[in-house]
Known about the structure:
alpha+beta
Amino acid sequence: MLSKRLLAADECSRYDDHLDTLSVQCKLKDSVHLETSCGTWNRLMLGCHPGHFSFILRAASDTLPTAVNLQRWRIQCDAKCSLCGCARPTTAHVLNGCPVALSQDRFTYRHNQVLHYLASELSDLIARLNTIHVYADLPGMRASESPQGTIPPSLIVTPYRPDIVIYNETCDSVAFLELTCPLDSVYHLESARDRKQSKEEYHLLLSELERIGVSCCYGTIELSVLGHYLQSSLSSLYNTVTFFQQSISRSQCRKILDEAAGLSISASRRIFLARNCLEWTYN
């Protein structure tokens, strides 16, 4: 076993060294390192649509047929982004950086696909008692629609709308979850987590709730556009669920995140396939 581990480590080292010599495919290292610690692709592989798996590998190595790559491959085309006119529409630009795609809610579509699944699963796991409610910042799942809010006005009146709110009205306890779908690298996942964890408005909200005697739990989930997540996201989900429901394991929470990862990958592929469509529809 020790020999196998040493050989594997040596092979990985040589693979990394080779990737460092490549100008484009070197980007694959970010996803490879995430896969080593997360393993999402490995768990999704058997049930993954062949087109989806090809997509994530090519997206991770930036070898999808973006306008930049087509020009690099000497295929005549307009090298600008069809939506915003960006001179270098890389894979990262298409999946998470185009301002026009952002304004058309293309990235919101992916976020909401994942959010809807997480909120539905949490409802199945936690909200079995009539006193526990799960709200999400989605039509039909909010605590109130006028004004729109995910925190019940009976608990506290606030303009803040966390992505997911779980409220136990019997024992006055509430949990907040914030979801982000950044690019597929440790840096982007950690940056998204730091940004959400340091939001002053949520710290003020938690302080106000604790002041009036409400027990609070706050966590963040960062699920990348290619389906990877950090162990801190798994811990956030696990801690939130066990705040209300003790009889659950980390493996159950991991399964939920893996399913959500599949939705993120599918949505990212749809966003990429529509990169040259000026209008965006997702119904």
